Predict the 3D structure of the following.
Amino acid sequence: DIQMTQSPSSLSASLGDRVTITCRASQSITTYLNWYQQKPGKAPNLLIYGVSSLQSGVPSRFSGSGSGTDFTLTISSLQPEDFATYYCQQTYNTPWTFGQGTKVEIK
Amino acid sequence: EVQLVESGGGLVQPGGSLRLSCAASGFTFSSYAMSWVRQAPGKGLEWVSAISGSGSSYYADSVKGRFTSSRDNSKNTLYLQMNSLRTEDTAVYYCAKMSSTNQNDYWGQGTLVTVSS
């Protein structure tokens, strides 16, 4: 199985900060990398698919980059509604594994 | 508007069975693969199963041989039959629509399954 490792597991940031979350795959997953946002008690919400394609309706302050095994989610200017947990997921090979999550909290 | 509504969750004893349903609307259900993802209390997301539009299915090792995904394209409904349930299967179960690179672009609200004696 492909292991997905996110870092950090949690971070504290202020409004307006630039935030970067990293996801590393245990083997190459080419561009089959997705990012989700989840708020407490809610279903996950797709932000980015195929490494860098922005899902419809998602603000442009979210962006994704990377290839092979190393990927990044960037929030260019943190807004109040962005405090949540973020997950990466590989869909290159089944089982389609998720990272353990990164919780973004208010500093 | 795409809508996914799960049902069928509840309390079940270890070793018991449960069948979850996911009613889909707002898209051509038969044209899309669907998946099940679960989340244990206070934990992260775990992919459980996926099923193609034609019915080919795939499973996580943790549920293989115990869970079965199926779909009725005439009823726009996805199912997850869960047998031999274990306490570690306790989770909120989400159904999700899949898209071009297997991303889950729409999710249901989830249904809670509690396995306990």
Remarks:
- The mean pLDDT of chain B is 97.
